[in-house]
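## Example pair
The file below holds two records. Each record gives the amino-acid sequence first, followed by its structure token line.
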Amino acid sequence: MESKEYRAKITSKNQLTLPAGVSAFLHVGPGQEIRFEVSDEGVTVKPVSVRERLKPLIGSGRVGRGMTFDEVNSYMRELRGHDEFDDRDGD
């Protein structure tokens, strides 16, 4: 890939506007996050993946072990008050 140079000016609030060529290369847009990795070699800019942004939420709504498939079916039959697949009533 051909190397290109982009420049951005830092505002008095330490903000900068990402040049269009950089945002297109990173496939990011308004509201998305980018990460700056700083090392002895310099600074690397990378987009923050959806998976990474959602990682703190994964499993946070789960309480206990959950139910098995059979337990869910049994619970649904109980809620309905009958077993819709039971033909013993003669209908």
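Second record, same layout:
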Amino acid sequence: MSDAQKLISNRLRRARGQLEAVIAAVEAEGSCRDVVTQLAAVSRALDRAGFAIVSTAMRECLSGADTERGGDQPTPEELEKLFLMLA
């Protein structure tokens, strides 16, 4: 696993933990402020993971690493579309 993949995996694990906290707070009828604050943290963590995934794909695309591993090289238009889906 590459360093980029480890970073992405860690971000997603953090988001999962935050989401579990949101679910627990809702089930325990926690305060609206706490639930929304935690939910915002989950959203940011997922956004950052998504941007890291797209960023990694862009670097691999430009370096040709994805093609060398036998993967399909995304077009610039596909990368742009993926990026904009996160915006």
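Notes on the second record: Helices lie at 3-27, 32-63, 65-68, 76-86. The chain has a mean pLDDT of 83.
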